[in-house]
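To illustrate the input format used throughout this study, we show a single complete record. The first block contains the structure-token representation of the backbone; no residue identities are included at this stage. The design step must infer an amino acid for every position from geometry alone.
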């Protein structure tokens, strides 16, 4: 299965990979790195809340929808000491697009590191990996991990405040990029209806 994946990679490498941006190595072209990672932190908090706090089976989907519900409803209240980050529906949509682009950019840098997964499992890992945060993503893109074990240790170290999050990233299929895209489409439709009746 792994050998088959290598042959496919050689044939479609140019179609899958996009050139690295010149301003920063870790964030897709056209999106400021600080804003992407600010929204990533918001999304991670929502995933932890819905998946592990509320123990919802579809917690990742609910987290994606919550990320888009907040700007539509102007509901940015937080129940802890940190002030809530305010963002627009357009920024949330750009975040969703950037998530998908970033997941695609990780394909080649980790291809020879993570060799013990099928094609689908490898894609699932890349789809969830931005949850691990900026340090893991930058190190992955810079090809700093030369062993699967080092890579997995880095993901677990990035999730020490919520160890189950590492399991969510490393195992299972969550379709995070797709869920963010679906939420963007649905909430933009809701915003259009809301504007038309205002």
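Output of the design step:
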């Amino acid at each position: 299965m792994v050998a088959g994946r290598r042959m496919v990679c050689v044939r479609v490498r140019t179609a899958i990979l996009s050139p690295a941006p010149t301003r920063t190595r870790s964030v897709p072209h056209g999106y400021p790195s600080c804003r992407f990672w600010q929204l990533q932190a918001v999304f991670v908090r929502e995933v932890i809340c819905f998946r592990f706090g509320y123990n919802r089976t579809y917690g990742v989907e609910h987290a994606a929808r919550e990320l888009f519900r907040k700007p539509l409803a102007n509901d940015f209240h937080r129940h802890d000491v940190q002030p809530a980050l305010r963002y627009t529906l357009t920024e949330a949509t750009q975040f969703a697009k950037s998530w998908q682009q970033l997941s695609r950019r990780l394909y080649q840098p980790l291809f020879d590191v993570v060799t013990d997964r099928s094609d689908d499992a490898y894609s699932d890992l890349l789809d969830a990996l931005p949850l691990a945060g900026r340090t893991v993503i930058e190190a992955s893109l810079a090809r700093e991990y030369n062993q699967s074990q080092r890579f997995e240790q880095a993901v677990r170290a990035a999730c020490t405040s919520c160890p189950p999050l590492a399991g969510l990233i490393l195992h299972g299929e969550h379709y995070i990029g797709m869920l963010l895209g679906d939420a963007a489409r649905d909430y933009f439709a809701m915003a259009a209806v809301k504007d038309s009746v205002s």
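Structural context for interpreting the output: Residues 51 and 59 are 4 Å apart (CA to CA). The chain has one domain: 31-197.
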